[in-house]
Design brief:
The protein is an alpha/beta fold. It contains nine helices and twelve strands. It has a single domain, classed as Rossmann fold. A six-stranded mixed β-sheet has the order 6-9-10-3-11-12, sandwiched between helices. The protein has a four-stranded antiparallel β-sheet with strand order 2-1-4-5. Helix 3 packs parallel to helix 5 and helix 5 runs parallel beside helix 6. It is globular.
Length: about 250
């Protein structure tokens, strides 16, 4: 039986004085792929940012445990060092900082180890090939002038180097065409290890066809209201969220 990696108990979160999460409970096992689905405004992105420790998202009640330890009050950098990674829905453009410099600095800070230039270059070459990205991305400023698909691939590039224990993909499929989606999803599958857990936030079934979640949970009005296996996504696609609202 898989051990618990992340456990959230009765989590309440406010954003700009608006109560978004209203007593949410969630458990993610080590090595599990867990998808979160739900209508717009239900709190899916809020959940990810709360797990990551974004200070804009104020926890007003409940607890977050990671590997059995309470991380509710830890800062973002402390959570990152513990192995939590969030891929942003809309990655920011950062002029003046190249992809190379950003990723190498991030790795050194998060892991506390200085990766040699030779090792970094070799790993970068292999990962760029995996993501079907040209080597010139290394010298471009982070996300500046990147297409939506390129930004999402750069998020996965960061993930590949940081090797987190928990990966949160917040609508990684938005803005991707079919080919880019396949590349990103296949790269995530190849990078995933047995001990690595993935939390996917999505509106669509298509990425779940690639990543095949162990559990799908429906988040509505700030709470998890229903969970099931991968077939639940197909039911949601056919019937919408009304069947959940109606208690079917």
């Amino acid at each position: 039986m898989r051990e618990t990696l992340l456990e959230i108990r009765d989590l309440h979160v406010e954003v700009e004085d608006k109560h978004i999460l209203k007593g949410l409970d969630l458990t993610i096992k080590r090595g599990e792929v867990h998808a979160i689905m739900g209508p717009n405004g239900s709190g899916k992105s809020t959940l990810c940012h709360s797990i990551m420790g974004n200070p804009r998202y104020k926890v007003t009640g409940g607890e977050i445990f990671f590997e059995g330890k309470d991380i509710t009050n830890l800062k973002v950098n402390e959570r990152a060092k513990k192995g939590i990674f969030l891929s942003f829905q809309s990655p920011e453009e950062i002029p003046g900082i190249t992809v190379d410099n950003f990723i190498r600095t991030s790795v050194n800070i998060v892991t506390g180890q200085n990766m040699s230039m030779l090792q970094f270059a070799k790993e970068m070459k292999n990962t760029l090939e995996l993501l079907d990205m040209d080597s010139e991305y290394r010298t471009r400023y982070l996300n500046v002038g990147f297409s939506g698909g390129e930004k999402k691939k750069t998020e996965i590039l960061q993930m590949a180097f940081l090797k987190p224990k928990l990966i949160m993909l917040d609508e990684i499929d938005s803005g991707l065409d079919i080919d880019a989606l396949k590349v990103v999803a296949e790269a995530v599958k190849k990078l995933k290890t047995e001990d690595m857990s993935i939390l996917i936030v999505t509106h669509y079934n298509r990425i779940l066809d690639y990543l095949e979640p162990d559990v799908i949970s429906v988040l509505m009005d700030g709470r998890i209201v229903k969970s099931g296996d991968k077939d639940l996504a197909k039911i949601l696609e056919e019937k919408g969220y009304d069947f959940v609202r109606n208690g079917v």
